[in-house]
Amino acid sequence: MGNGKGVAVITGKLTGQTVSDINRSIYFHYNGDHQARVLSNDKIAKTFADTADEVDIKATLPGFYRTPNRELSMTIEEYEGAYLISTSNVPSLYCRKPK
């Protein structure tokens, strides 16, 4: 994230009705102030390796990661030299700063 734009990359195994691979990039822009951010996705780019079943994706991932033109609200707080990312006041990611 930087200068009002960012990208999120999701890659790994998705277990649902079947086990499949998920590999996609979500391009977004954001706004907000202080610690609150609202992300709006612009484009979702799937790679050839993305074989994820849409039924499993809908049951697992929020709309922001699977459907263009969706929003995601979050807070980003610095915590002990890292970032704590929360949605609906529930911590969801802990990201260490690069050294």
Main sheet attributes: strand count, strand direction, barrel closure: 6 strands, antiparallel
State which percent range the strand residues make up. Answer: over 45%
> Would you tell me the overall average pLDDT?
83
Order of SSEs, N→C?
A: EEEHEEE
Unreliable runs, pLDDT <50, ≥5 residues?
A: none
Count of individual helical segments: 1
Describe the 3D structure:
The chain is mainly beta. 7% of the residues lie in helices and 58% in strands. The chain has 1 helix and 6 strands, in the order βββαβββ. It has one helix spanning 54-60; strands spanning 5-15, 19-31, 36-46, 71-79, 82-87, 90-96. Strands 1-2-3-4-5-6 form a 6-stranded antiparallel β-sheet, with no helix packed on it. A hairpin with a 2-residue loop joins β4 and β5. The radius of gyration is 14 Å and the shape is globular. The mean pLDDT is 83.
